[in-house]
Design a protein that fits this description.
InterPro entries: FA_desaturase_dom (IPR005804), Fatty_acid_desaturase (IPR012171). Keywords: Membrane, Transmembrane, Transmembrane helix. By secondary structure, the protein is an all-alpha fold. The chain has one domain. It is built from 16 helices and 2 strands. The chain has a two-stranded parallel ribbon. α4 crosses α8. The chain is globular, with a radius of gyration of 21 Å. About 40% of the residues are buried.
Length: about 350
């Protein structure tokens, strides 16, 4: 048996339930069912839907720049909102997909999109993203000392400062944090700085020469736009793993058990679906089980994954955004400051 945070949507829990299994379901059986869906899926299902979203987002960037050139405060405000939303979609949804190789079938082209979405547009090094996210977080999800989401914790900050104020400074600290991550890896650092300089130059060219802002105003607009969805971004990243079972490196469970107990889905959201992506928001369980699938395919396999886990007695963790927010606000010290308790996987009882 193992404890886990879970429950039906709208019924947030912060108590431990028991999972009792006579036989541990096999990942290979779930993979067969998912592969059957993949074989019947077209290129449109596999990649096309997400490509259309990406093209629309890039197009909306120019709409935003155009709106910000108006003398109307309302038009400028709307332009900033669209600009910030597009930035989030490209640098979170797009970069996340490219990092996992789910933008297209070509490994080389995924690498190109990683650099564009992350280094150039997002000002964060794709090399560091790959090391932190692909090499550590995914294979070691909720394993103490490896993928336990501790990088998201800032224990010296009080609850409300962390939850509602600190995220607004992400655009300011992105480059210093990136440099610290690449310190000593000089070639990667130089490459990152070159690409980031290109991206920021394009950004300021748009804002100063097409929207007509001064450098100071362009800097302020960049900060506001990039910070616009930073609060839900931090929330989503901590809600989906922290507070769920954590395992020691010596007693880690098999993959399907690890991911089903240590990952949580949030409900679909019209705004966040296309700025963060299904694989980060509402299909995070599916994403951790099948990380190379696109957002659209994670959504398509969701009923199969949910049915399989529930049928075999494993948790399928879901909760509302509001439910997690209440838990983290109430239990901030326990979840974000104190060391997490270790859940022992001792095999099937």
């Amino acid at each position: 048996m193992v404890g886990y945070f879970g429950g039906d949507r709208g019924q947030s829990k912060d108590v431990y339930d028991e999972v009792e299994l006579k036989d541990l379901p096999k990942m290979v059986d779930l993979r067969k069912e998912v592969n059957s869906i993949l074989q019947k899926s077209s290129w449109w299902d596999l990649y096309g839907v997400d490509w259309v979203i990406t093209f629309v987002v890039f197009g909306m960037v120019f709409v935003a720049v155009y709106l910000m050139s108006f003398d109307s405060a309302l038009a400028v405000a709307l332009g900033i909102l669209i600009y910030g939303y597009c930035h989030s979609s490209i640098t979170v949804k797009g970069a996340h997909a490219a990092t996992h190789g789910s933008v297209c079938a070509s490994t080389a082209w995924n690498r190109v999109w990683m650099i564009l979405f992350s280094d150039i547009v997002g000002s964060f090094p794709s090399d560091a993203t790959y090391d932190i996210h692909i090499k550590t977080h995914h294979p070691h999800t909720n394993i103490i000392g490896l993928g336990d989401s501790s990088t998201w914790k800032i224990p010296f900050l009080p609850t409300y400062a962390y939850m509602y104020v600190a995220p607004l400074f992400i655009p300011v600290i992105t480059i210093p944090v990136s440099i610290s991550e690449l310190w000593g890896k000089w070639f990667k650092m130089i490459k990152y700085l070159v690409f980031t300089a290109i991206g920021l130059s394009i950004n300021f060219y748009f804002l100063m020469n097409m929207s007509g802002f001064t450098f100071t105003h362009a800097l302020l607009v960049t900060w506001v736009a990039r910070a616009m969805l930073s609060i839900p971004y931090i929330h989503v990243n901590i809600f989906q793993h922290i507070g769920l079972p954590m395992y020691s490196q010596k007693s880690r469970p098999v993959r399907i058990y690890q991911m089903s107990t240590g990952v949580l889905n949030l409900p679909r959201n019209l705004i966040l679906d296309y700025s963060f992506g299904h694989s980060i928001l509402s299909c995070h369980v599916e994403h951790h089980l099948f990380p190379t699938l696109s957002d659209n395919m994670c959504l398509k396999i969701q009923p199969t994954v949910s049915r399989f886990l529930k049928k075999n007695g494993l948790p399928y963790n879901e909760d509302t955004y509001q439910g997690r927010l209440e838990i983290f606000t109430k239990k901030y010290k326990e979840l974000m400051v104190n060391a997490p308790p270790i859940t022992h996987f001792v095999g099937i009882q």
